[in-house]
Amino acid sequence: AVTALARLHTAGVPVDWPGFFTGTGARRVDLPTYPFQRARYWPEAAEPVTQGSGADAEFWAAVEREDLESLAGRLDVAPETLDAIVPALSSWRSRSRTRATVDSWRHRATWQPLTGAATGRREGTWLAVLPAGATAAPWARAVTDALGPDTALLVADTTDRTELAERLRRFAPGDDTGAPHVTRVVSLLAADPAVLPGGVPAGLPATALLLQALDDAGLTAPVWAVTSGAVATGPGDDPVDPLQAALWGLGRVA
Fold first, then answer.
1. Rounded to an integer, what distance in angstroms lies between the CA atom of residue 29 and that of residue 26?
2. Distance, C-alpha 215 to centroid of its chain
3. β-pairing, 223-225 with 195-196?
4. Each residue's pLDDT tens digit, 77-99
5. Predicted pLDDT of residue 121
6. Burial of residue 234 (number of CB atoms within 10 Å: 0-12, 13-18, 19+)
7. Res 123: pLDDT
8. Confidence of residue 234 (pLDDT cuts 50, 70, 90)
9. Fewest CB within 10 angstroms: 27, 111, 163, 185, which?
10. Residue 68 in contact with residue 83, Cβ under 8 Å?
11. Between 242-253 and 203-216, two packed helices, what is the crossing angle to 10 degrees?
């Protein structure tokens, strides 16, 4: 009935809404504004590269016009020596401009290996969250070793949000249990190779649960969720692992 009235209303048929809602306690409220707020998430476009100026611009303008006389005078050579060179330069110039224009439309992500010196530059205390069981991928332990011996470890062997939050609360500022107060959190839950019914990687809901529990515990430290094989970092990489890639989708939402 409500759907029918709503369709009539949107079609322009007068509907006695106050009469319909009489006795229900309904009241008129303002529309929420947040669905209509817009924000850009892309980097601002770089200023276009200037293709020469002054004398350079005049020279290339003469090349594009294939003005052999003008160019011969500038270069102090006979015009006939430029018959084959100038058309080739003009064609190269045109291709270069097209390539520069296309490049200005693109955004490129690059990767570089993490060196030993970089791993030594860490601030504050890390909390590494590991999956339960002894089947975690070897790279998870390699990450904790790289973070150093002062790293606090937590095994997420529960699916209860309240219980996990309680365990995390002792690492939050203001706690007096004697546990280190962490300022960085690294989730290694993607190292769990298990796959849940429906093809869902176990690390996906575990990571979502961790983010919720961290918020419940008042632990606002930045979180790094480490994956392996989730994205390609170079042409020689193995095919992307869709189970690991799922964590990247969660990360963007979080």
1. 9
2. 21
3. unpaired
4. 888 888 888 888 888 888 988 99
5. 44
6. exposed
7. 54
8. confident
9. 27
10. yes
11. 20
| Distances in whole angstroms, Cα of residue 3 to Cα of each of 9, 18, 26, 51, 214 | 10, 16, 17, 61, 41
Please state the rounded mean pLDDT for residues 166-175.
84
Query: What pLDDT is attached to residue 48?
Result: 59
The DSSP output letter for 221 is: -
Indicate the average pLDDT of the chain.
Answer: 84
Burial class from Cβ neighbours inside 10 Å (0-12, 13-18, 19+) for residue 118 reads exposed
Where does residue 121 rank: exposed (0-12), middle (13-18), buried (19+ CB within 10 A)? exposed
On whether the CB atoms of residues 132 and 157 are closer than 8 A, the answer is yes
Rounded to whole angstroms, what are the CA distances from 22 to 7, 8, 15, 18, 146?
Answer: 20, 19, 13, 6, 66
Cα gap 68→59, rounded to integer Å: 11
Q: Cβ(126)–Cβ(152) under 8 Å?
A: yes
Nearest to 166 by CA among 209, 217, 220, 218: 217
Q: Is 83 or 187 the better-scoring residue by pLDDT?
A: 187
Most confidently predicted of 63-67, 110-114, 128-132:
128-132
Query: Cβ neighbours of residue 179 under 8 Å, at least 6 residues apart?
Result: 152, 170, 171
Task: Spell out where 148-231 has E strands.
Answer: 152-156, 184-187, 195-196, 200-201, 223-225
